[in-house]
Amino acid sequence: MDNILTLLVFFPAIAGLLGFVIEEKSMRVYGITVTVLEFFLSLWLWGIYDGANAGLQFVEFVPIIPSMGVNYYLGLDGISLFIVLMSTFMTMIGVISLSIKKNLKNMIISLLFLEMTMIGVFVSLDAIIFYLFWELSLVPMFYIIGAWGGPLRIYASIKFFLYTFTGSLVMLVGMLYVAYAYHDLTGVWSFALTDWYSVVFSVDAQMWLFAAFFVGFAIKVPMFPFHTWLPYAHGQAPTIGSVILAAVLLKMGTYGFVRFSLPMFPDAAVIWIEPIAVLSLIMIIYTAMVAYAQKDIKQVIAYSSVSHMGIIMLGIFAMNAEGITGSVFQMIAHGIVSGALFMLVGMIYDRRHTKMMDQFGGLASVMPKFALIFGVMLMSSVGLPLTMGFVGEFLVLIGFYHVSPMITILGGTSIILGAVYMLSLFKKSFFGPVTIEENRTLKDLNANEIWSLLPLVVLVIWLGVYPKPVLQPIDNSVHALLKFMDEKAVNEETKALIHVATKTKEAK
Amino acid sequence: MENLIYIALFAPLVSSLFAGVFAMSPRATFVGVISSILLLVSFFASAQLAYFVYSTNAVIHTTMMPWIMAGDFFVEFGFVVDHISVTMMTVVTLVSTVVHIYSIGYMDHDKSFNRFFSYLSAFVFSMMVLVMSDNFLGLFIGWEGVGVCSWLLIGFWYHKPDVSRDENPSISPSWAANEAFIMNRVADLGMLIGIFILYWSVGSLKYDVVFATLPHLSETVLTTAALALFIGAMGKSAQFPLHTWLTDAMEGPTPVSALIHAATMVTAGVFLVIRANPLFAMTPEVSFFIAGLGTFVAFFAASMALVNRDLKRIIAFSTLSQLGYMFAAAGLGAYWIALFHLAAHAFFKALLFLGAGNVMHAMHDELDIFKMGGLKKYMRWTYIYMGVASLALAGIPVFAGFFSKDAIIETAFNEEAYVLWGMLVVTAGMTAFYSFRQVFLTFAGVPRYDTHHLHPHDMYRYVLIAMSPLALLAVFAGFFKEEFEAFVTHLLPSYHMSEHTHHLVGLLTVIVLGFAIGGIYLAYKKYYNGLKRDEKCENSFIYKLLVNQYYIPHFYEEFIAKPYTMISQKLWQEVDMKIVDAIVDAIAYFFYNSGDVTRRMQTGNLSHYLNWMAAGTAVLLLAAVLFA
């Protein structure tokens, strides 16, 4: 199966095009079928992926503009594999749990296009193709927020679009510079990432380029102080929009750092550790506090996302396998957990048409199943061992401890502050007596909702108890990445800081 | 033997899942019965393992499967059954079994009966993981697991509303649950840091690897690691200043208080210090700090117990105080004595709590001992049980507490830590006083409750029978002190009193006993013949200070909780909205408005365009002249 990645990228898009001729009333079944097939396709990809091979696999290479070195160049390694799997999985779950009635057909078509762009971003190995998918992903999400959102949806969607778009343009300039530099060096044009990796830039050039890419990625993550589009986007987006946004779109930013910034500019990355660590700390602590001040459940989860992305950023810049592997794992974990939390908020919103905490209280006695699943996700979100959330968070912190104990201690406060806002949310909405009459008659989760949440619960626990199948391939690729960075680095200090594992244990 | 390990470990998990299946169905007695049977199975497996370790002195090691791996980091689910863990396993499963059976009676009328057993068994499972793991991260799983179960069980009656602190010092079960969880998390961060330090200096988290490498580590690493781990222990074992959650945790059902907040979970911190004794033995400053803090907490908690009126809170303070004793012993290097007191305390304190549960059951959840009295007529067995437990707690000879607590006090003397010794002796007297103040106010004298509406009666017979093993152990456990010492010192460093102390042992015992008996006598004089309120005393500053727990909960409320909420609010409304986001919008509006303004150039009038062209040419020419 040579073209499996192409199939994976374009199957949802083609199915989306065909969707235009499907009848509205069978659209739901159609959407579910397509996303389930897509998910099984990605599962199959995992099945045939060689976990022991750390390099890029399933590579496809078709020249598009040979004179400019623009190629249709796809491939994937342990780092992208699971993000792709998580994307197809969350899209599938999102479509299954879809409760929107209005313009369902257009919604599903938008989602299928969005799925194409997401997977495209994670498997592209050519900068132009990557950039295309990166920017294209804005369009369906722009529609989803703008057409199905809350009262402020136009403001929120435009803010989302323009903000991230501006950042991407700066990144594009950086990309063009790299391409020029490659041309200067070799006399040929190339946008292939693997070619770019071989260019050794001076430390000065690295600093500028790192900054250019940083702007693009940091807004997407979103890092403090570029995060303010996120609460609006989440606040106005329909449930499905928030789920995909939190689970997948944010990961594009952190993925970008791992795929572009680290291997291309290792020296600059090491020099940037401190400022990035400080920004990450602000993300972790400041947004955790802001999350605590929220009155709207969805806003708490939105701000908590920023806080968790801070942990992920910290891990990427730990410059050792513990931190980076943990970080990539945490991207998956956060995707699943925050996706589930947004779905849960959506379910209560469908029932009560409000997301304000003071409108609830005592839900645990009215909706015990809902409370149970919410509780599991909450515990994973605050990093309880034997749930997914712990593995990533722990590895990130232990990895970064090697770089700076002080920053790790401050970053570690996330386990306290996370518990503060999450438990206070849980207490306000689920505990206490039922004070509002309307809440007394709320229906607990129905079968469809349970079936769309149950896989998430199973995953959260399974990968918390036995993360090896996911950690191992990620770790192999991260190991290769670190070795590459270590060899490429110009500065001696960089080499000293990059910690390549000795890999003494039997490599399975 | 491996099978036995897994049976001991997983029987509680099976029990929890089984009860969990029925969590949302109506109350069913068989759920409680089957849970109890599964716990009994776990106990038998643990006891058999204990016998095996006792008879062969072999240590059983087993690895279930790998867990986390990244870079050089590698941790497995590994379990070790040695002298320390098997002692803990036996104690934990024994008390748990009794508490499970007890709960069938106690939770009889609760509609969430099934859910209760699910949580309770899940707790036992976590506790077993905590004590059986062969590495620090495995211990941390159990550590956090018991934390969550404690959160679930403290907040078990989550439907109760928040009330003011004056009405109920714990505000509400859900408030107390959150407080416990968050305060423990503060300490857990310390524990994690300790784990990080050990990992980066040793390269492994397995106990035996870590302990074997310790002699090669620098003093700074050892001290910081020991201190960080101890901060973790301070949270779980509710040592000052992280102690306020424990008394608030009394909002949970009484069997929970007996099992989690007296016998097992809160001793996890002591267990950690005992388990990591090679580390603490190499860091004398940290160890002495532990001993000092332990002694202080012993005294500090006992002082608050003197004046409290709440049946359960008195016992909670007493638990705090006894945990202080254990830390004092461990900090002074007498690890086996600490472990012995831990076990003995588990038996008599659980018994005391279960007795208190009987009283609450009879008094329709009344907790104020000033509104009780004269219950011995109706609740003879409970009276005997609580009396025995209190005698053990007070350290009266033949009862278990005498052997364990006396040894701790002797250790302090032996280490020439005379200040600690003095405080521990005085605390022993206070312990005796508040224990019997409680017993007499509850059972002796005349009824102070409404005798028309309340007709107290003793607990179901099977519940009373189920409590008997604890009572027997509270009486007889002390006699096995020497066997216990011989058993655990295979692994733990032995501790011997010096020649000097040996000579004085008689005198020392008499002093401690004098204080204990004096305390009981004082309580007898004051309270046996009924309650006489002493207005002057109750209005004094010291009394108020003690009743308000030295105002520490108020302090936390005013100086941590409230400012945190206020700063959070400000950060959101003032910083995030009015600065960070406003700048973004301002930039956007700048472009928008500048476009809006310059749009006026596009008038469609040709002569305007010509003017602009001329102006533009002039500017460009000027620029060319200036920069050429």
Characterization of the model:
The complex is a heterodimer of chains A (508) and B (628). Chain A has 508 residues and is mainly α. Chain A has a domain at 272-465. Chain A is built from 23 helices and 2 strands. Chain A has helices spanning 4-19, 27-48, 78-96, 104-123, 127-136, 138-148, 153-186, 193-197, 203-220, 229-236, 239-264, 266-271, 273-293, 297-316, 321-352, 363-366, 368-381, 388-401, 405-412, 414-430, 447-465, 468-488, 492-497, and strands at 57-65, 70-76. A two-stranded antiparallel ribbon of chain A has the order 1-2. In chain A, strand 1 (57-65) and strand 2 (70-76) form a beta hairpin. The longest helix of chain A has 34 residues, at 153-186. Chain A starts with a helix and ends in an 11-residue tail after the last helix. Residues 504-508 of chain A have low confidence and may be disordered. Chain B has 628 residues and is mainly alpha-helical. In chain B, 72% of the residues lie in helices and 3% in strands. Chain B is built from 25 helices and 2 strands. Chain B has a two-stranded antiparallel sheet with strand order 1-2. In chain B, strand 1 and strand 2 form a beta hairpin. Chain B is globular, with a radius of gyration of 30 Å. The mean pLDDT of chain B is 91.
